[in-house]
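> call design_seq(struct)
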């Protein structure tokens, strides 16, 4: 709710933080003070521009408590994994749990499988994808994708903006060389996010319509 309010204000003239009455701002917030100085801003004198910050989604690939997925030979760990012990928002405690607990669990599980395979006389094969460096030439496409997702699939999104994003993502995908598999993967994820938002899996400015909104009591 706060992010949407800031985004709405930002689109109509800007949202600002007034920290001029905060005592000892430079000593209490030296990092922020240094960052502001690089942009010519003084918190004791200036209103500070505010913009919504991007947060991180968490989960997606369902795993067991050892990091195993339903696909043989594939483990998932970290913010990509949906272990069932936390929600979809990335919080500091989520990252700590994934990094210290589930990374250790997955590592031990995978090491045990490798030892079992070696004892049985079999080898664990891996299929690698050669890095053709084509992705290095696609930074412009990826930047265009980032700008598109922020503008049309960001905090404030609607049916029309999402339809526009889908069309533009299709265009960017067609413009991406086949060998640029990392860029293709990022465009694929962007498309899935956009489709989920169109199915009203995400909050949108045009849903629910006024006829379905509850009256305030």
């Amino acid at each position: 709710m706060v992010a949407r309010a800031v985004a709405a204000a930002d689109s109509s003239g800007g949202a600002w933080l007034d920290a001029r009455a905060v005592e000892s701002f430079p000593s209490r917030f030296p990092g922020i003070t240094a960052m502001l100085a690089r942009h010519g801003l003084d918190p004791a004198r200036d209103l500070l521009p505010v913009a919504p910050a991007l947060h991180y989604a968490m989960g997606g690939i369902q795993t067991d408590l050892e990091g195993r997925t339903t696909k043989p030979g594939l483990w998932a760990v970290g913010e990509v994994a949906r272990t069932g012990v936390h929600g979809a928002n990335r919080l500091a405690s989520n990252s700590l749990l994934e990094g210290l607990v589930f990374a250790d669990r997955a590592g031990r599980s995978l090491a045990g499988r490798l030892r079992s395979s070696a004892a049985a006389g079999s080898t664990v094969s891996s299929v690698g994808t050669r890095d053709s460096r084509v992705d290095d030439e696609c930074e412009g496409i990826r930047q265009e994708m980032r700008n598109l997702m922020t503008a049309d699939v960001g905090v404030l999104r609607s049916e029309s903006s999402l339809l526009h994003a889908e069309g533009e993502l299709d265009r960017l995908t067609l413009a991406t060389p086949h060998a640029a598999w990392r860029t293709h993967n990022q465009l694929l994820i962007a498309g899935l996010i956009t489709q989920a938002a169109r199915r009203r899996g995400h909050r949108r400015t045009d849903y629910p319509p006024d006829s379905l909104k509850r009256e305030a009591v």
